């Protein structure tokens, strides 16, 4: 399988960001793939990631989706930040489940973009839906030749 | 200062939930106060809580607000979960800052409620605004006599 | 083409609601189709529907999406209301364009549901993305035998 | 009462926008006041503004809040548009009620802002909470000397 130019750049940016992202590393997130406007990140729900009701903390699901969102909206190497995000929780998630967040670019015009991120479990059930609005800064994420 | 009955119950519920909330403990969150429909939670941003741009991860700010939201909407001892949440990021947060999330009940009708959570830094600047919609289940959180 | 039982019920409910919906009639909305958890509504943007910048009012786009959402979440004849909705505006809409809102059920568990509504113009471009959370009441919308 | 310079500009911009806003005029909205980052708009709910359940259409409440949001975020005469908005519906609204939407600026940094709009009835009860994210364009709304 040949990597396209856009995929190569998206992966280089995501790898760089993942390296600096101490929080997502601490939780155990793993970058699965990245392309222009797209990214997939996975996470196993351990017993350290539960809330006061004994199920996966909503903040963990948000963080997973937000991380995929960050890789997707920075994928063209323009430093981009989140303006606002919303998340709908569809099903409780238990310890041991492996979640996967898939980010898709729905719109990119001028400096702002909209991304949809679906969080699914291993059985393919959607457990959360996230939508993020991004804003492009003037810097680059990584240096390229 | 005398604790009211509602405050006593809200604190008992929040203390119980905090004990089981492995995720917020791992991040270093601390319950500051709770009353009927209200809660305050604080968190120091350490170097483990940054994202790929070197600033506090959006998921950390969300998790802090979401935890205050959980204590506030469970404060009357009815097990209550989040249906959906939105967050607006107003300012970047650096390592070393101490954040405080303050949850306020804006509406509670039948089984659903709306809560506003403001996340502020030590200087009192609002760094994020969170709004959550809650749904009451049939169980209680803790046993009372 | 044979109408299924679920489609027949969804259309009967939507037709009944459309008849009583004075606001969407005033704007010129037309029910295109309805099925269990789904609905399509269309609207031509006339010169009466613009805002102070001379383009289609954001409230018009919201109202169109919200109406499709209402038909979709009431489609099984359980009276259902909106708890909260969010909308992202992707492109300005001019006088003369014909918009179409397509509502899709993403989740329905217990009394709450999540619906995605895409608003597109005639060329198929998405001009707005809407997400709604619904709550089922105890009544029916129409009487059936 | 002496009008400040900022209030004078905000009112001039809002008056200009209101004149062109055919949609809000058709619904019967009235600009009550405007200041830098703030605006109040009122609306009487007539029988033309109801939905298929016989109560005020959610799109009407959204449109009212969105109009106050527009006046508030354009109040400094920089043409500004909505990126996304969310609304929580707290109580049904009946024919004959007079609603008032009050927009407040929560943040304005660079080209983006966050505004909270509360929609209240005559008794002061909050019937909807709206939050909007704005984006400043490069044009002005009105010409000034």
General description of the model:
Four copies of one chain form a homotetramer. The first copy, chain A, is of the alpha+beta class. Chain A has a single domain, classed as Hotdog Thioesterase (Thiol Ester Dehydrase, Chain A), CATH 3.10.129. The first copy, chain A, is 26% helix and 42% strand. Chain A is built from three helices and six strands. The first copy, chain A, has helices at 5-20, 22-27, 58-73, and strands at residues 30-35, 38-44, 78-89, 98-109, 112-120, 126-140. The first copy, chain A, has a six-stranded antiparallel β-sheet. In chain A, strand 4 (98-109) and strand 5 (112-120) form a beta hairpin. The longest helix of chain A has 16 residues, at 5-20. Chain A is globular. The mean pLDDT of chain A is 95. The A-B interface holds A 16-24, 26, 47-54, 57-60, 62-64, 66-67, 70, 74, 79, 81-89, 92, 141 and B 16-24, 26, 47-54, 57-60, 62-64, 66-67, 70, 74, 79, 81-89, 92, 141.
């Amino acid at each position: 399988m040949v990597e396209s130019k856009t995929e190569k750049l998206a992966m280089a940016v995501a790898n760089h960001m993942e390296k600096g992202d101490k929080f997502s590393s601490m939780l155990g997130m793993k970058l699965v793939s990245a392309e222009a406007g797209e990214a997939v990140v996975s996470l196993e729900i351990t017993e350290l990631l539960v809330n006061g009701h004994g199920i996966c903390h909503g903040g963990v699901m948000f963080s997973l989706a937000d991380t995929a969102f960050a890789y997707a909206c920075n994928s063209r190497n323009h430093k981009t930040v989140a303006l606002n995000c919303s998340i709908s929780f569809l099903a409780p998630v238990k310890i041991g489940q492996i979640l996967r967040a898939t980010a898709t670019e729905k719109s990119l015009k001028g400096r702002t973009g909209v991304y949809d991120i679906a969080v699914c479990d291993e059985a393919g059930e959607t457990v959360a839906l996230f939508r993020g609005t991004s804003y492009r800064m003037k810097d680059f994420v990584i240096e390229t030749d």
